[in-house]
Predict the structure.
Amino acid sequence: MPSEPAVLVGVSLPHLPHHRVEEYLDELSALVDSAGGEVHHRVIQARDRLDAATYVGKGKAEEIAALCKAEGIKLAVFDDELSPAQIRNLEKIIGARVCDRTSVILDIFARRARTREARTQVELAQYTYLLPRLTRAWSHLSRQAGGIGTRGVGETQLETDRRVIRKRIALLTEELKHIAAHREVQARRRRDTFEVALVGYTNAGKSSLMNRLTAAKVKV
């Protein structure tokens, strides 16, 4: 599958110098690469404070739009977590899909989750993240719930989608409770064994360390 071209966007603030933003974008670039993307450009704007409506200034957003249009880039990844309004406003200006660091990390987790518990946890995290961002197009969720004929009089598409996601979150939460209970039963049977956990940020080298320490052959 070909890599998805992307542009990275960061903001340098009075307490966040340009070189530090470059370091953050280096890290974000690695995350985008892990998620199947390919960084074509970086854009850093120096500001006194973040723009509440568009994160970067409107003029800079229009520059990013021109860059994306000229090079056929369909994805702009912002280094900080964006509000639902910021995502909506930026997509209108840029004319491309907009996401932030959090959504990239969740995408990586979704790609690499193997166990039932991991897949459930990631799906729950994704829906929790998406719920306040439902001003974007999520019509397929309503079709899954039944679509026409299932909505109350005067109910909007957005309200329908929110109900679908809340229902899914409740189901996933309940499923995690059952998984946890099952794991506790298994744990009681292994009281004489040790459990060790490797915890770290995405791309920190957890899988590589696991492979060096054990014969697990975890995919890196």
Q: What stands out?
A: Helices lie at 18-34, 58-71, 84-94, 101-112, 116-130, 139-145, 157-188, 206-213. The first strand starts at residue 4 and ends at 12. The chain is about 55% helix and 10% strand.
